[in-house]
Amino acid sequence: MDRAGIGRVCLALPATTLAHSFGEDHDVYKVGGKMFAIVGGEGALSFKVSDIAYEVLTEAGYAAPAPYMARAKWVQVADPASWDEGELADHLKTAHALIAAKLTKKARAELGLG
């Protein structure tokens, strides 16, 4: 999946916004003001995963621990075009859900996330 495809998947998720917090060449996708995925200037994709997915993806070599964010269970995929698009879209949906679940009940209600 290319940068535009990642953008289409992320922006189709509820209450998602696009920011350029780290410069114009970095696409930062947020829900409720919290990041759930980042496409860097070189095209690498970083996103939030569950504890189990972090272990599986990093140990199997599908992804690397994301720089600066690995402690929060983020992974980085150097070439997102090499991944199956459906699988990558599922990971992005999960990343969105993981971050949305950490928002306050009030924030989720205001965003229409239940």
Automatic annotation (TrEMBL):
Keyword DNA-binding carried by entry: yes
Record keywords: DNA-binding
SUPFAM superfamilies: YjbR-like (SSF142906)
Pfam families given in the database record: YjbR
Alphabetized InterPro entries for the sequence: YjbR, YjbR-like_sf, YjbR/MT2646/Rv2570-like
GO MF term set: DNA binding
Protein name: Putative DNA-binding protein (MmcQ/YjbR family)
UniProt source species: Brevundimonas halotolerans
